[in-house]
Design goal:
Radius of gyration: 32 Å
Helix content: under 10%
Number of helices: 4
Shape: globular
Largest sheet: 28 strands, mixed
Distance between the termini: 64 Å
Strand content: over 45%
Length: 653
């Protein structure tokens, strides 16, 4: 009791707290930038030319400096509150595209009670665990493109506390939270999460970190406020509770619409994760950093209900006075990823600066060579539904239906090697390489499905001649077993690669920077949509289509539409560029050639194409104008292969 009073007194004595530097008025323009450019280009495919102007002007202004305000104490038991505003150079007032001004908002950074090395945090949080970003040469940490493992466990449980222990070696945190309802916070819906971590700053083996996590929701049912009387209303029916769809055996029982409401629903989501990594310094420059991460999710559902009166009828339409239904299900998903970085420099807050690797996809790079491998392990599920009641009305005392299913993805593994030279070879030379590969399972039929009935004539395809001991049992149990995997659209292994180089040639005050880039992706890469696998889908390096890797000829596998179309070839892009800076102050001149798909071999301008000898057929990609008999839908599409050539200049400061 004395400690509780002490904590309350410390939290209340604001006048005795010690504060850091607070934000103060400091009106100034932090920076003022702008540029104007003009370029003249030639579309080598369409045979068209033209100018393009662009300009940009923006400023950032600060009305106060960044700072924070925090409590401090020399005691072993104290209350910590820290409120901060980002530094002016990081987040400041600035003019946005719509002409308004925006400002960094003050935020609560820390709110904790400290009892020696133990603590209790009172800020909102979550009960999920497992997210992990791998370091790499290209797409390094702090970029969502490096987030190979996502959080697992019960989500949206944000209101509550976290209790833990932390020192230089360990950090243990136990979250205890509830999920906010649609109309109230008081929902009786709780979840917990535990994370235990050996920090990389530990004194036992510096550079090694290990993190384990687990979480689960604790509540069988949820309550919400009805919005009028304040009375708590039960919302544990199947739809609102979020349980997966319930499949009841309905061959001999007709359930009325009212039975969509399923009482006594228990739905739990278990999340579990593990991560480990180690940074081993080889000397003052070189180091090796391996890491591995694992996540798993298990969902369980249990439903029970007794039906009476008109809730259920037998096959003849007669009401069943009493009918008991139970349903249970579980689903498990497991994922694994590992990677290693051999580096010779620290992560830079910049992209690689070479063609195809100079955009948002690589905002973080690390001098080194790396590889990350993603392995979807498996998905397994099982459900059991049982109906039992009056044999005189049902004909049988009970029916039991079991479904077991295992499934895996169309690919075995996704591999992403990358390389960034940094200053390793020459401080003026930059080399960047990034690749995405997927190993496909192939077209062989691995799907196996079998139904059979227990205690009756066997109907399983695997044992068609086996007979039951009792040909007319009071109960029937059927089992469905399915093992399979998603079939790829294209069975070839998928491969895509981007390679770029640039070199700063300094001639007195003039710098000439030639750049070269090549980008390739095979047909299987796009057929199987590898660039939509997380995290590759974020800021894609390889993307088919106009203005990207080009427009590629397709072949229809049958006459049932675009859903069955596959790419008939591969993709190849080249880019050559030269920048010249220093001839005039604040001015850059450039010339650039950027190809479309050099492997594209169909002419979209031709109304008819030759096939099967001399027979001419309508070109499905004909680009003709509507008044000339064409569809007019693809006016910009022609034999997209040669690409464009441009020259231009930019003045900037």
């Amino acid at each position: 009791m004395k400690k509780i009073v002490t904590l309350a007194a410390i939290a209340a004595l604001a006048g005795g707290m010690i504060f850091a530097d607070e934000p103060v008025a400091d009106v100034k323009v932090v920076n003022f930038t702008g540029n104007a450019s003009v370029e003249w280009g030639v579309d080598l495919d369409a045979g068209k030319t033209g100018f393009k102007n662009s300009e940009e002007a923006k400023f950032r202004a600060s009305v106060f400096s960044g700072g924070d305000k925090a409590t401090s104490s020399d005691d072993d038991i104290w209350a910590e509150l820290k409120i901060k505003v980002e530094n002016a150079d990081d987040t400041v007032f600035g003019r946005t595209d719509d002409g308004t001004l925006k400002s960094p908002a003050p935020k609560v950074d820390t709110a904790k009670f400290h009892i020696f090395n133990f603590y209790v945090g009172i800020r909102s949080g979550d009960t999920v665990t497992g997210a992990y970003k791998f370091d790499g040469a290209i797409r390094s940490a702090d970029n969502d493109n490096a987030k190979w493992m996502s959080d697992v466990g019960p989500a949206d449980y944000t209101q509550g506390i976290v209790a833990g222990y932390a020192d230089d070696n360990f950090d243990f945190a136990l979250d205890f939270r509830t999920r906010k309802g649609e109309k109230t916070y008081w929902t009786n819906d709780y979840a917990i999460a535990l994370e235990a971590q050996l920090k990389d700053s530990n004194a036992f083996l510096p550079g090694l970190f290990v993190k384990l996590g687990g979480s689960v929701n604790l509540t069988d049912e949820r309550f919400d406020n009805d919005g009028a009387t304040g009375k708590g209303t039960r919302t544990s029916d199947n739809d609102k509770f979020g349980a997966p769809g319930v499949s009841l055996p309905t061959d001999h029982v007709n359930f009325n619409p009212k039975t969509l409401y399923l009482s006594d629903v228990s739905y739990n989501v278990w999340g579990y994760s593990a991560q480990a990594g180690y940074k081993l310094s080889l000397d003052d420059t070189y180091y090796v950093k391996p890491a591995v991460a694992f996540t798993g999710t298990t969902k369980t559902t249990n439903v029970k209900r007794t039906y009476t009166g008109k809730d259920a009828e037998n096959a003849s339409g007669k009401e069943i006075s009493s009918l008991d239904v139970s349903y249970s299900a579980f689903e498990t998903n497991l994922d694994l990823a590992f990677g290693v970085l051999f580096g010779w420099g620290e992560t830079k807050d910049d992209n690689a600066g070479v063609p195809y690797l100079d955009g948002d996809m690589a905002k973080k790079v690390t001098p080194g060579v790396s590889v990350v491998v993603g392995l979807p392990l498996f998905t397994q599920s099982e459900s059991v539904a049982e109906v039992s009641g009056d044999k005189s009305k049902l004909g049988k005392a009970s029916w039991k239906e079991t479904k077991k299913k295992t499934a895996d993805d169309a690919y075995i593994a996704v591999v992403t090697p990358s390389f960034f030279s940094g200053d390793l070879i020459n401080e003026n030379l930059k080399i960047g390489l990034y690749s995405e590969m997927a190993f496909m399972r192939g077209f062989e039929d691995r799907t196996q499905t079998g139904w059979y009935t227990v205690d009756n004539t066997k109907q399983n395809l695997n044992t068609p001649d086996e007979k039951a001991a009792d040909p007319a049992p009071d109960s029937i149990e059927t089992v469905q077993v399915e093992n399979g995997h998603k079939s790829p659209v294209n069975a070839n292994n998928a491969f895509a690669l981007a390679l770029g180089l640039s070199y700063d040639l300094k001639l007195d005050s003039v710098t000439v920077t030639p750049k070269f880039g090549v980008r390739f992706a095979n047909g299987s890469y796009f057929d199987n949509k590898i660039n939509e696998i997380s995290p590759l889908t974020s800021n894609k390096v390889f993307e088919a289509g106009w203005g990207k890797m080009g427009v590629q000829r397709k072949v229809k596998s049958n006459g049932y539409g675009a859903a069955n179309e596959v790419y008939a070839g591969d993709f190849l892009n080249l880019k050559l560029r030269c920048d010249v800076a220093g001839l005039l102050d604040n001015t850059t001149f450039w010339a650039e050639y950027a190809s479309a798909n050099l492997l594209n071999d169909i002419n979209y301008k031709d109304e008819y194409i030759t096939s099967n000898g001399n027979n001419k057929t309508k070109n499905p990609y004909y680009n003709g104008l509507a008044e000339n008999g064409g569809s007019g839908n693809n006016i910009g599409w022609y034999n997209v292969r040669a690409g464009q050539f441009t020259v231009g200049t930019k003045i900037s400061f």
